[in-house]
């Protein structure tokens, strides 16, 4: 379903009313006079039944909901379960997308008319219809609080992002706790900077030592953990920031590292440390993202290897000098170990601040995209970029700049109207938001757009197109803001900040002029952006601006899924093969629809495209795809997989679009498990050099995995219930222990892990299956030696009762505790613990290549082969079928393997075993990402900006 209508083209830019009138003249973009948008689509009834994949229970059900026939199953499920208001099963419950959209757009129209935004009732009606069309056709989406609250009897909170402040007094600290709680209760998140609170190295007026901000973080963390956002099942989202010159900065950096070690110790002791588990609440600081706010002085001291002063909060005097490079190293080590803290670049942020006369930018929202004054909020909306790609199906493509600008103007107008009727959680936030009217327009589906147009995400062409679209979006938004200022007045704080606001507009325009044009796709977009920025400078000087900021790049988690987007925010595609739910139940795996578009753009014929798509469907990647040129491989690089985008590629994309974003970009730079602390330092340093405002990193497997403890408990309960309900005879099967013979082959290995020495003896059955393991550490009679003996016996008995070795390997590799570090084994150079080393060594010695490769365990020779040939697999070596059979789980039905095609089919993951794209990728790549499981439906979540999103039900770990 396209967004354009038949008939002559219609202009849509809202213009100032003719002389003698006041208000906007709204012209049509998509709609037809005399025809309501609802009457132009085919509607159908659907049944929404959402289950928990852990136990099969139904966690949401609403039958007979009404949606357009072109909406996907996933989008219908998410909008119905998340955004329909009223108790399920009552007459008050919404049952149609028409009701939901009407509830919102009619509220916006009414507020626009009451506040004199429109020149006439006819203009107000066109505005209502255009807004309804854009929402109906998934061209854009407001942030979740709008869908939750607008048009209901509850407070009409429209903002998802809040920044608070706290002063150095107990009264202010207690206000912080209260204000955060009210925001969390409303379903949103908040961030703040704690740097005004005096450090633990300073004195109180009574003469005692101050507690310091880290101690007060404990109380706020406990409060956030108790209050679930909006009464939903996810915890509150929050950001805590500390300036790098605060005397307690080292304690702040290490808070989460210490807690992560505690989580591992408690998990290993048998406590339920799953996300949401019974015992996880005993661990502190887990409800907030932590970030260090660094300034140019510190970064230059790092660059030059100089000392850096930590300053008292009350007097500003230097009370301690530290080595800047060593402190920077501690930040990188902590982020490498547990993903926190992130980093924010203070001078860069405030260089682009439109309102410095009203105060500095000290904080951000939890996902780091909204950065403005303390005690303010921002309401967001995101455009679906794929809706603006014009493609004739023959490789001829263009970006519809004219329609894009008109939709941006429509959305910005609506967003500004929302501030007129919005409710806010605190009086201070309400007053400041109405005074500065911060907006955050952004987009989703950038990764899909770049691939569809034949651009690699990490390429000059991809960055040029992304930059051009971003510049055009923000330039158009500020132009409309200046037009609105002429009709309903500039924001209250504009007069005081006019000079600074104009300066920032010139900075945006100058960056646009310096940008490099690359090809036929981005050049017209840059030209339109240049015109928009010229209008911004001209109209802004004449009228001022209605809004102190216009754009951010949010994670677009739930709303991205509601719009049917393949990619969220600024992220690249996750993988080339997608998991798709079908109407009526069931699912299937499909190759991204953007792949054929990209191939046509690159000049491939239909026969070649079919062959390449078939290869991707079978292998999950483009490597060795028939007829695909190697220079085109990069176009299909994804966030995960054989050809994953490099971490620095993500940073370069952020730098390419940051000059045209009023706020910042919510993005986590994913790094492989093999990344080093030096790699983290390089990313944090280069991001500063490139002008990025903020970022965070996440190294694979740096956090504790999520054991399915709930599943085990539920399964036991289910069995008990089933036995009561069905008392028929049950045949019980018990494993039989297979003891080793008196004489047995064995391998004894000496090893060193982090300076600790030990010996391992692994004995096998005569037919070459591992049967027992003996470990010797320390002196006989010591506690460590006794524990190793007990552990060896437990593992050996399990092996003899038939527990597959790969089960032990998957459970015990990546377990982290001391001693850890360098080993003397060339195949396993680094180990996170002795247990991690032991099971990696056993996998190398006893598991076949296919099995351990799926677990990500390779020998030094195999890693070298991968660097040289791109493949770990041995060349011209026969597969040891018997050894594979020894370690593989037994099958009830024999597999047919007479042809290579049959082998490939047998190796393909079964669609029924995956419930989201994240799980499908894991099955294809043989990896186990340590993302959390969804609270609502139990499926594996995936990254969306700085948060996680569940593709199954739309729940998020903190962003809306």
UniProtKB/TrEMBL annotation:
Residue span, TSCPD domain: 744-844
Annotated catalysed reactions: a 2'-deoxyribonucleoside 5'-diphosphate + [thioredoxin]-disulfide + H2O = a ribonucleoside 5'-diphosphate + [thioredoxin]-dithiol
Keyword hit for Oxidoreductase: yes
Region ranges (Disordered): 1-22, 709-729, 884-914
Superkingdom to which the source organism belongs: Bacteria
Class of enzymatic activity (EC top level): oxidoreductase
Ribonucleotide reductase class II vitamin B12-dependent N-terminal domain location: 48-138
Needed co-factor(s): adenosylcob(III)alamin
Residue ranges with Basic and acidic residues bias: 711-721, 890-914
EC number: 1.17.4.1
One term of GO molecular function: ribonucleoside-diphosphate reductase activity, thioredoxin disulfide as acceptor
Start and end residues of each Ribonucleotide reductase large subunit C-terminal domain: 159-698
Protein name in UniProt: Vitamin B12-dependent ribonucleotide reductase
UniProt source species: Streptomyces thermoviolaceus subsp. thermoviolaceus
Lineage per the UniProt record: Bacteria, Bacillati, Actinomycetota, Actinomycetes, Kitasatosporales
């Amino acid at each position: 379903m396209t967004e354009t209508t038949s008939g002559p083209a219609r202009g849509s830019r809202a213009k100032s009313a003719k002389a003698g009138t006041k208000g906007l003249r709204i012209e049509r973009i998509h709609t037809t006079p005399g025809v309501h948008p609802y009457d132009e689509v085919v509607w159908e009834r659907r049944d929404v039944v959402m289950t928990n994949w852990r136990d099969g229970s139904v966690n949401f059900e609403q039958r007979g909901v009404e949606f357009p026939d072109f909406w996907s199953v996933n989008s219908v499920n998410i909008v119905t379960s998340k955004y329909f208001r009223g108790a399920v099963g009552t007459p008050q419950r919404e049952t149609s997308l028409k009701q939901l959209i009407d509830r919102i757009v009619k509220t916006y129209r009414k507020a626009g008319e009451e506040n004199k935004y429109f020149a006439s009732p006819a203009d107000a009606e066109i505005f209502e219809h255009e807004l309804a069309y854009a929402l109906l056709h998934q061209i854009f989406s407001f942030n979740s609080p709008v869908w939750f609250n607008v048009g209901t009897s509850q407070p009409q909170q429209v903002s998802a992002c809040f920044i608070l402040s706290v002063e150095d007094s107990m009264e202010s600290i207690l206000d912080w706790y209260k204000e955060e709680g009210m925001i969390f209760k409303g379903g949103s998140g908040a961030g703040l900077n704690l740097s005004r609170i005096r450090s633990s190295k300073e004195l109180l007026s009574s003469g005692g030592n101050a507690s310091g901000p880290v101690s007060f973080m404990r109380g706020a963390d406990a409060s956030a953990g108790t209050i679930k956002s909006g009464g939903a099942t996810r915890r509150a989202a929050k950001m805590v920031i500390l300036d790098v010159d605060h005397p307690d900065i080292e304690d702040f950096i290490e808070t989460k590292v210490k807690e992560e070690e505690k989580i591992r110790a408690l998990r290993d002791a048998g406590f339920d440390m799953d996300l949401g588990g019974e015992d996880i609440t005993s661990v502190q600081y887990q409800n907030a993202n932590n970030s260090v706010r660094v300034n140019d002085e510190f970064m230059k001291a790092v660059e030059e290897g100089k000392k850096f002063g930590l300053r008292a909060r009350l007097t500003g005097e230097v009370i301690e000098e530290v080595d800047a490079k060593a402190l920077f190293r501690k930040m990188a080590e902590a982020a490498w170990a547990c993903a926190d803290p992130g980093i924010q670049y203070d001078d860069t942020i405030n260089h682009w601040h439109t309102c410095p006369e009203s105060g500095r930018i000290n904080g951000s929202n939890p996902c780091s995209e909204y950065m403005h004054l303390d005690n303010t909020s921002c309401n967001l909306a995101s455009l679906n970029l794929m809706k603006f790609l014009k493609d004739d199906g023959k490789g001829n493509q263009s970006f519809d700049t004219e329609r894009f600008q008109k939709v941006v103007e429509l959305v910005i107008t609506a967003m500004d109207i929302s501030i007129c009727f919005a409710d806010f959680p605190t009086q201070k936030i309400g007053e400041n938001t109405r005074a500065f009217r911060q907006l955050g327009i952004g987009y989703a589906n950038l990764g899909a757009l770049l691939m569809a147009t034949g651009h690699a995400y990490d390429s000059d062409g991809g960055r040029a197109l992304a930059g051009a679209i971003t510049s055009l979006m923000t330039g158009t938004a500020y132009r409309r803001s200046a037009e609105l200022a002429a009709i309903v007045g500039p924001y209250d704080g504009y007069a005081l900040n006019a000079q600074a606001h104009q300066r920032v507009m010139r900075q945006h325009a100058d960056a646009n002029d310096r940008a490099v044009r690359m090809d036929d796709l981005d050049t017209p977009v840059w030209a339109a952006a240049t015109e928009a920025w010229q209008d911004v400078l001209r109209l802004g000087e004449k009228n001022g601006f209605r809004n102190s900021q216009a754009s951010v790049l949010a994670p677009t988690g739930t709303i991205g899924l509601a719009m049917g987007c393949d990619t969220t925010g600024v992220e690249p595609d996750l993988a080339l093969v997608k998991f798709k739910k079908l109407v009526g139940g069931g699912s299937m795996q499909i190759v991204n629809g953007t792949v054929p578009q990209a191939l046509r753009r690159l000049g491939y014929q239909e026969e070649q495209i079919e062959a390449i798509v078939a290869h991707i469907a079978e292998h999950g990647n483009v490597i060795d795809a028939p007829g695909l040129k190697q220079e085109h491989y990069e176009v299909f690089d994804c966030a995960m997989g054989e050809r994953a985008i490099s971490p620095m590629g993500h940073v370069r994309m952020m730098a390419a679009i940051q000059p045209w974003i009023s706020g910042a970009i919510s993005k986590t730079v994913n790094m492989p498990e093999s990344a080093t602390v030096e790699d983290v330092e390089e990313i944090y340093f280069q991001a500063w050099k490139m002008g990025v405002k903020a970022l965070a990193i996440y190294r694979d497997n740096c956090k504790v995995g999520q054991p399915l403890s709930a599943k085990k408990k539920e399964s036991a309960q289910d069995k008990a219930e089933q036995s009561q309900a069905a008392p028929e005879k049950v045949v019980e099967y018990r494993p039989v222990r297979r003891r080793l013979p008196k004489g047995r082959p064995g391998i004894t290995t000496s090893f060193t892990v982090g300076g600790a020495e030990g010996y391992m003896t692994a004995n096998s059955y005569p037919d070459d299956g591992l049967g027992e393991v003996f470990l010797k550490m320390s002196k006989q009679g010591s506690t460590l030696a006794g524990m190793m003996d007990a552990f060896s016996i437990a593992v050996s008995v399990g092996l003899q009762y038939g527990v597959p070795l790969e089960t032990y390997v998957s459970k015990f590799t990546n377990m982290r505790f001391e001693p850890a570090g360098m080993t003397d084994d060339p195949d396993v150079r680094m180990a996170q613990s002795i247990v991690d080393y032991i099971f990696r060594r056993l996998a190398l010695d006893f598991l076949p290549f296919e099995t351990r490769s799926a677990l990500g365990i390779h020998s030094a020779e195999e890693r070298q082969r991968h660097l040289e040939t791109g493949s770990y697999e041995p060349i011209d070596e026969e597969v040891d079928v018997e050894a594979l059979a020894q370690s593989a789980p037994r099958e009830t039905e024999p597999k047919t393997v007479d042809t290579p095609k049959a082998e490939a089919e047998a190796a393909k993951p079964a669609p029924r075993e995956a419930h989201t794209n994240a799980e499908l990728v894991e099955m294809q790549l043989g990896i186990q990402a340590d993302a959390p499981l969804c609270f609502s439906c139990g499926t594996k979540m995936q990254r969306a900006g700085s948060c996680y999103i569940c593709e199954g039900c739309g729940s998020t770990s903190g962003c809306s």
